[in-house]
Known about the structure:
alpha+beta; Arc Repressor Mutant, subunit A; six-stranded antiparallel sheet
Amino acid sequence: xxxxxxxxxxxxxxxxxxxxxxxxxxxxxxxxxxxxxxxxxxxxxxxxxxxxxxxxxxxxxxxxxxxxxxxxxxxxxxxxxxxxxxxxxxxxxxxxxxxxxxxxxxxxxxxxxxxxxxxxxxxxxxxxxxxxxxxxxxxxxxxxxxxxxxxxxxxxxxxxxxxxxxxxxxxxxxxxxxxxxxxxxxxxxxxxxxxxxxxxxxxxxxxxxxxxxxxxxxxxxxxxxxxx
Length: 228
């Protein structure tokens, strides 16, 4: 069973996922990175460009999903180095520190809140996220074209692409596609007809929506909604 709540860390979400016998669907690209806890291990989920299906038997997870573009500054690693990967936190931070943090989360009555505390402490030790990146996400999530967004933010397209690689793991056009997918899935899951979903999310038509969903998730929209 999946559950989530807003985090005390601005823009982040705290979530848990425990096996319920129904089988879980794939983890879809969403523009975010996560700090994860499962079976005694602290991990980081990098930015996805394709669906991720966890291997092995079902297990319990807890996580903090960071607002798009904010995790690299907290974790100290460019997002593109973790694209489509799940890595142990020990690969990014000193091993002795990670072991202490793992002991702390493992002994907590609520591992998800313990993870959130770690994220908050790390945020207090690092520079605040670049406000330009937050504005970029907002503009693209409104359906603004990349070129118009770059001009509005006062930066060149090459500079924007370079900064997006470090913050999101891919360029602004891919980020815009993923944010549009996220909007479309939210509408479709709320019962909005597919044709209306396509228009409201920013696709040319329903066929365009269908192609993009299949390209980014590997599944037709109807099957994807059933799996979710």
